Amino acid sequence: MTDKNNQAIKAIRGFNDTLPDESNKWRQVESILTEVMDSYGYTQIRLPLVEETQLFARGVGEATDIVEKEMFAVSHASKNQEADNADSNAINNEESTSFSLRPEGTAGVVRAVIEHNLTRGDTPKLWYMGAMFRYERPQKGRYRQFHQLGVEAFGSALPDVDAELIAMTATMWQKLGISEHVTLQLNSLGETDERQAYKKALVDYLNQHFNDLDEDSQRRVTTNPMRVLDSKIDSTQTVLANAPKLSEFLGEDSKAHFEQVKSYLNALNIPFTINEKLVRGLDYYNKTVFEWVTDKLGSQATVCGGGRYDGLVGLLKGKPEQSEPAVGFAMGLERLLLLIDEVNPLPEQTACDVFVVAHPDVFTDGLKYAHALRQARPDLRVKMASATSMKSQMKKADKSGARLTVILAQDEIENGQISIKDMTTGEQSTQSKDWLFDASNFKN
Ligand code: ATP
Ligand code: MG
Question: Roughly what angle, to the nearest 10 degrees, separates helices 252-267 and 159-176?
Answer without folding.
Answer: 30
